[in-house]
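Researcher: I'm comparing several assemblies side by side, and this is the next one on my list. It has 226 residues spread over two chains. Same procedure as the others: predict the full complex and return the structure.
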Amino acid sequence: GAVVSQHPSRVICKSGTSVKIECRSLDFQATTMFWYRQFPKQSLMLMATSNEGSKATYEQGVEKDKFLINHASLTLSTLTVTSAHPEDSSFYICSAPGGAHVYTEAFFGQGTRLTVV
Amino acid sequence: KQEVTQIPAALSVPEGENLVLNCSFTDSAIYNLQWFRQDPGKGLTSLLLIQSSQREQTSGRLNASLDKSSGRSTLYIAASQPGDSATYLCAVGRDDMRFGAGTRLTVKP
């Protein structure tokens, strides 16, 4: 199947700093990518939809000024956690549809474990 | 809004047992349903994808069924092994996927 690469896999940062997470579709183009967050012992929750060439759309309760999303090309979306705080510590994972047809599979990155100290 | 529920939340079985994990969803207008495996601290491993027009999918010891009209799916694991121990997630949709909370499976040697 298609491959989605996410980097870094693990990051520790100081409170107040910003962290950028990259999500790349390696062998296919993705006009849309999705960012999810998973808190400890909870399931994955959709945070936002990243749209190539336009603004991201955010789920209710997700601060768009804190979680900056840039989808600059057909193969790359980035999520920047700005002014990170310990409560932002979580597992972040991206996905990209493998094709335009709605029945095609979505492929997930490996995830990024963010720890804010 | 689509809601996905998984039962049981946790399951512990002896090695070799056959088991069934359950997933239910509230909105039957779905395109896909997917089962994933997640190991502690790790990402997602896709196990089976069922399109809405399909009834079931099989891969090795795994069999997933889908009853779209009743909003249910089951994941059947045959002859369970300790290596099957993980959290199993059910998700519906393709783009903005909605995940269940998962079933944490422990297979004891």
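Model: For your comparison table: The two ends of chain A are 37 Å apart (CA to CA).
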